[in-house]
């Protein structure tokens, strides 16, 4: 029987997470997208803590325009918060989502904001 869309994403997510991990020096930028919103957080997997987070639901994020434009704004917001926290380099975790559209826009926004990955 064929896997559902969610089951495929979770299978991809497990495979990717077996290869990457975040630390306090090189945290993992995890992305989650729902139908309306997009969320990003920098995670230290060794301590199990979220260092910085940003989403399209926050008041500081300019949530005007298309969902792709909002995703780019979230990427810039997380980059600004990360740099304020002293983080410059990260590991990108697309969380099983295809690196296309909103996920790519968030990554490009984070790069424009000054994060290196």
From TrEMBL:
Pfam families in the cross-refs: Ribosomal_L18p
Entry GO MF terms: 5S rRNA binding; structural constituent of ribosome
Lineage: superkingdom: Bacteria
Any one biological process term the GO annotation gives: translation
UniProt entry keywords in alphabetical sequence: Ribonucleoprotein, Ribosomal protein, RNA-binding, rRNA-binding
InterPro entries attached to this UniProt entry: Ribosomal_L18 (IPR057268), Ribosomal_uL18_bac-type (IPR004389), Ribosomal_uL18_bac/plant/anim (IPR005484)
Any one cellular-component term (Gene Ontology): cytosolic large ribosomal subunit
Annotated transmembrane regions: none
PANTHER family, per the entry: 39S RIBOSOMAL PROTEIN L18, MITOCHONDRIAL, LARGE RIBOSOMAL SUBUNIT PROTEIN UL18M
Quaternary structure and interacting proteins, as annotated: Part of the 50S ribosomal subunit; part of the 5S rRNA/L5/L18/L25 subcomplex. Contacts the 5S and 23S rRNAs.
Function summary: This is one of the proteins that bind and probably mediate the attachment of the 5S RNA into the large ribosomal subunit, where it forms part of the central protuberance.
Protein family (similarity comment): Belongs to the universal ribosomal protein uL18 family.
HAMAP family, sorted: Ribosomal_uL18_B
Protein name from the UniProt record: Large ribosomal subunit protein uL18
Record organism: Chryseobacterium soli
Gene name in the database record: rplR
